[in-house]
Amino acid sequence: MAQQIPISRQARADDPRADAERDDGTQEIAPDLAYRRLVLANVVFVGASGAGDRNWVLVDAGIPGSKAAIRNAAAARFGEGARPAAIVLTHGHFDHVGVLEDLAEEWDVPVYAHGLEHPYLDGSAAYPTPDPSVGGGLMARIAPLYPTKPVDVSTRLQRLPADGSVPPMPGWRWLHTPGHAPGHVSFWREADRSLIAGDAFVTTAQESAYAVVTQEPEIHGPPMYLTLDWPAAGGSVRSLAALRPERAITGHGRPLQGPELRRGLDALAQDFERVAVPDQGRYVETPARAEDGSAYRSP
């Protein structure tokens, strides 16, 4: 049975006192790295406070209905009317592209993603159906209600370069971390060992509505109800653990830092099949792979 890996609250990379004080803005975890929690998921802002127009990047685009929250947070951090240089995606699930079409149009920006995610971003393919039988908890049980249809930003969509660079994010590299989605990527900055992990692993029990609300720091595998290839997901966690990150911000839960982050990530990597993979489920025995046209369609 999947289990959580508890982490001390002292390992949080954000300031626990800032939740109420900065509820309408971002929380900074490095001088040029901040995030905004949007109920179900996080968005990440890469760029120094006050950076101004076209001098920052948005990673992921929130849940449906979060446009004003993202736009207001960006204005508070970077300046009124400051637009990003680009929107960069870890993957295309509904809680990461909820207002992508609106923001990309309003800000007139390119959208970067791995090529294997492009069918879900150009309107040509839908993700496979979520599996509500895994993980338990309300968030898992209502998974069939989550949108799977693709968004369409085809006129702005660009592939992340094959050399691993991220054009609008100097100093960062993208890493292919599939399993939760075929073209899922994480972003890594070697200079200060910062990791934007998306949903390759998360720091809350995303299947549980209670955990989503309380945000107690724990390390978990990717959200079970939307993970379609568990062997690939385990390999992705092991590759990220090997980086020995100093801080990590994930798509769900609070950012973590320091030795406890590394200890927890090591424990998840070493025992992934026992602590992260559900005992049974639609995609446990038969992963939905990119080459399976009924599940994914490669670009």
Could you describe the 3D structure shown?
This protein is of the alpha/beta class. The protein has one domain (5-275): Ribonuclease Z/Hydroxyacylglutathione hydrolase-like (Metallo-beta-lactamase, Chain A). It contains eight helices and 14 strands. It has a seven-stranded mixed β-sheet, covered by helices on one side. A hairpin with a 2-residue loop joins strand 3 (33-38) and strand 4. Helix 6 runs antiparallel to helix 7 (258-270). The termini are far apart. Mean pLDDT is 85; it is low at 16-24, 206-215 and 291-299. InterPro entries: Metallo-B-lactamas, NDM-1-like, RibonucZ/Hydroxyglut_hydro. Keywords: Hydrolase. This is Hydroxyacylglutathione hydrolase. Residues 1-27 are annotated as: Disordered. Residues 40-252 form the Metallo-beta-lactamase domain.
Structure characteristics:
single chain, 299 residues, alpha/beta, Metallo-beta-lactamase, Chain A, seven-stranded mixed sheet, 21% helix, disordered C terminus, Metallo-B-lactamas, hydrolase, Hydroxyacylglutathione hydrolase, hydrolase activity, RibonucZ/Hydroxyglut_hydro
